[in-house]
Write a structure and sequence with these properties.
- There is one protein chain.
- By secondary structure, the protein is of the alpha/beta class.
- The chain has helices at residues 8-11, 30-39, 49-63, 76-81, 100-107, 152-156, 197-200, 214-220, 231-240, 243-268, 291-300, 326-345, and strands at 17-19, 70-73, 91-95, 112-116, 136-140, 164-168, 190-195, 208-211, 273-275, 283-288, 303-307, 318-322.
- The two termini are 31 Å apart.
- The strands form two sheets. It has a seven-stranded mixed beta sheet with strand order 2-8-7-6-5-3-4, sandwiched between helices.
- The chain folds into two domains: 8-26 and 250-341, Aspartate Aminotransferase, domain 1 (Alpha-Beta Complex); 30-245, Aspartate Aminotransferase, domain 2 (3-Layer(aba) Sandwich), CATH 3.40.640.
């Protein structure tokens, strides 16, 4: 049985060079830390409706939406945990992809149908594979772990009356220009989830938001407790949706694209290594011979990578690696070259 609850943080134990977790940097930038420190004096009170409204207004302005179409979340993962509140009769999950939506739906007893994309086809989205009777469809864009960016037009064809289409855009702000994003389109029945974790190094804070029609967000949030997100999360969401933050994220996305190209080129020169391209996320999906042995060998050499076999549709020969700067990339490439050479010699 696939371990759907396995995530990259499990692979990246302390002391290893981390290529398993897709977070940019080890801490938030200084200006964001200052905003969070400034909000500390308000945590002696319950989160205020004013703070919530300020965060929603900032996100709405960032995406050209109405504030009523924004729901602040305790990380995008909370949005997946809330999906059973939509009471779907049949959920179609496009895989390989992030597995938390499937965990939440299966635990709630929702029938789940796998739409498995084909590696030979570059994991391209095939809307015709989604069952017509699926009233909930979930997919990532760009997709974790394949790093595929699906065309927005293909996603739009999946939206229809009586169906909720959930698009996980947790990594979209790492795509220069966000060309295939649906975040700014108020499409009926479409729910877009965004995360602040990756670009702003906030995995310990759990901050994100959902975008969708007000009535859809009301259904999604129907069973949330009072004060579901804290004051610091609201402060982070407001700050990261500001024009200056959006500009900084855009610059970071361009840098990630350059670093990804450098990493892909270096990996492509290694024997027995296949790099899935083109790639759009801050990570690459590799296929190597005898992947489990290679992954364990990399650990012994001090390198942590994300195993691929816990994603439906992938095997133990698949490995996901996070994009880092060229200096750090050299350690991964060197260790992988040495490990593959050991295989050849053996």
């Amino acid at each position: 049985m696939t371990d759907l609850r396995h995530h990259g943080d499990v692979d990246a134990r302390p002391g290893l060079e981390d290529f398993a977790v897709n977070v940019r940097g080890s801490a938030p930038p200084g200006w964001l830390r200052e905003r969070l420190v400034g909000a500390l004096d308000r945590i002696g009170s319950y989160p205020s409706t004013e703070d919530d409204r300020a965060a929603r207004l900032a996100v709405a302005a960032r995406h050209g939406r109405d504030a009523a179409e924004v729901l602040v979340l305790a990380g995008a993962a909370e949005g997946f945990a809330l999906l059973p509140a939509l009471a779907p009769r049949k959920a179609a999950l496009v895989h390989p992809s992030f597995t938390e939506p499937e965990v939440a739906l299966r635990q709630a007893g929702v029938p789940v149908h796998h739409v498995l994309l084909d590696e030979a086809d570059g994991y391209a989205l095939r809307p015709e594979l989604v069952p017509d009777d699926a009233d909930l469809v979930v997919l990532g864009n760009p997709t974790n772990p394949t790093s595929v960016l699906h065309p927005a037009e293909a996603l739009r064809t999946l939206a229809r009356p009586g169906r909720v289409l959930v698009v996980d855009e947790a990594f979209m702000d790492a795509v220069p220009g966000e060309p295939e994003s649906l975040a700014g389109e108020p499409l009926p029945g479409v729910l877009v989830l965004r995360s602040l974790t990756k670009t702003w190094a906030l995995p310990g804070l759990r901050a994100g938001y959902a975008l969708g029609a007000a009535d859809l967000l009301d259904r999604l949030a129907a069973h949330r407790p009072h004060w579901p997100v804290g004051t610091l999360v609201l402060a982070a969401v407001e700050a990261c949706a500001s024009p200056l933050a959006v500009a900084e994220a855009a610059a970071a996305a361009r840098e990630v694209a350059e670093h990804r190209a450098h990493l892909a080129a270096a990996l492509a020169e290694l024997p027995g290594t296949s790099v899935r391209l083109p790639a759009a996320g801050p990570f690459l999906l590799l296929r190597v011979r005898d992947g489990e042995r290679v992954r364990q060998g990399l650990r012994r050499r001090g390198i942590a990578v994300r195993r691929g076999d816990t994603f439906p549709g992938l095997s133990a020969d698949h490995i996901r690696v996070a994009v880092r700067d060229p200096v750090r990339t050299a350690s991964l490439v060197g260790a992988l070259r040495a490990e593959l050479s050991t295989e050849v010699l053996g």
